[in-house]
Amino acid sequence: MSVSLRRYNKVLESIPCYPESVSSLEIRQQLLSSDLLPMTTDEKSQLRTVQRCINQVVADNSSIEINDECRPYRYQIARGHRHPIKPDGMSSVVSLQVIEQEIKSMLPPTLRSDVDAIFSSLKQQDTKQTRLWNERFCYFPNELPLIAPNVGSAYFKLIEEALLNKKDLHFSYQKRGATEAKDYTSTPLGLFLYGNSFYFVGLVPGSDSDIRTYALHRIHSLKLGFSSVRTLANFDVRKHVQRHARHFAGGDKLSVTLRIENYSGLHLIEETLLSEDQVIVSNQDGFTTISATVRDSHTLEWWLMKHANIVEVITPSTLREKVVEMIEASVRLYGL
């Protein structure tokens, strides 16, 4: 993490909640004790650096109040507002643990250093409440976490540079299932994260509608090209994925009817529902039939396969037939 970012985090961390407050002089002293100000400069230069950082922190956080009736000014988190980063109770500790477990597992190793530094800073906060809940609460992911694939350390910077300067990218890419990589050129349009894998969306050079998606971890080498011949002035990655990439965002809404075995599938019926409009159609012979509206997606198919021993698809017939095909393929793999 850069010194400027560490300094920013330290300033934000140093501003207390109402009724306490802190002055720029006190913040300067805290930065000095954390080796976040150059010792070779004079006090006036150090205070200018501190004030610039404070001004940026205040601009980014509307909950910070400034008392300008005294000199030097004093700063505090306004009454009734929680501290932006300093955990002070159960909700903060719970949120921190969940975010750390989920977000860090989704990021490739090349993006984790800054996140690690942020969490390390937050964990240093020591209050009665945080000590209590750090001992009395623990978060466990409910699924087998997959390790994020490796991505070239410079890829994100190169893609950002290409987007800012409207340049093409040249890369060597190995398609899923292919035995070797091939060379491609693309005009970058954006990135998105699906699970713990990053994907790059790009335009075929010279086209204004041929948009393709590439997994960053399948790129073997990447370099900047020349200025793009043609690019799109406006492009919304989320809308594009939702409209054109069923694999990632899910397809159209789909009404399904499922028959669930009661004993093993009770949590699917009463607790972890498929959708807010899930309703029970019938209940007999140890099975409950439900109806729900879901996204027609690969995730739905994977979920059905995961619970294939306790969940039967009744309708629609196309989905039922697809699940049957996948079950038959699974059985063949085991030679049955």
Jot down its keywords.
12 helices; SH3 type barrels; five-stranded antiparallel sheet; four-stranded antiparallel sheet; 40% helix; 336 residues; alpha+beta; Arc Repressor Mutant, subunit A; globular
Helices and strands, with pairings:
Blueprint: H1 3-14, E1 22-23, H2 24-33, H3 43-60, E2 64-67, E3 74-77, H4 90-106, H5 112-123, H6 128-136, H7 155-165, E4 167-173, E5 182-194, E6 197-203, E7 211-215, E8 219-227, H8 237-244, H9 246-249, E9 253-261, H10 262-270, E10 279-284, E11 287-295, H11 298-306, E12 311-315, H12 317-333
Antiparallel strand pairs: 1-3, 2-3, 4-5, 4-8, 5-6, 6-7, 9-11, 9-12, 10-11
Helix pairs in contact: 1-3, 2-3, 4-6
CATH topology of the largest domain: SH3 type barrels
Q: How big a fraction of the residues is strand?
A: 15-25%
| Residue runs with pLDDT of under 50 for 5 or more positions | none
Report the span from N to C terminus. 54 Å
Summarize the structure.
The protein is an alpha+beta fold and 336 residues long.
Description:
The protein has helices at 3-14, 24-33, 43-60, 90-106, 112-123, 128-136, 155-165, 237-244, 246-249, 262-270, 298-306, 317-333; strands spanning 22-23, 64-67, 74-77, 167-173, 182-194, 197-203, 211-215, 219-227, 253-261, 279-284, 287-295, 311-315. The protein is α+β, with helices and mostly antiparallel strands and 336 residues long. The chain folds into four domains: 3-77, Arc Repressor Mutant, subunit A (Orthogonal Bundle); 90-136; 155-249, SH3 type barrels (Roll), CATH 2.30.30; 253-333, Alpha-Beta Plaits. The strands form three sheets. It has a five-stranded antiparallel β-sheet, covered by helices on one side. The longest helix has 18 residues, at 43-60. The protein is globular. It starts with a helix and ends with a helix. The model has no long low-confidence stretch (mean pLDDT 86).
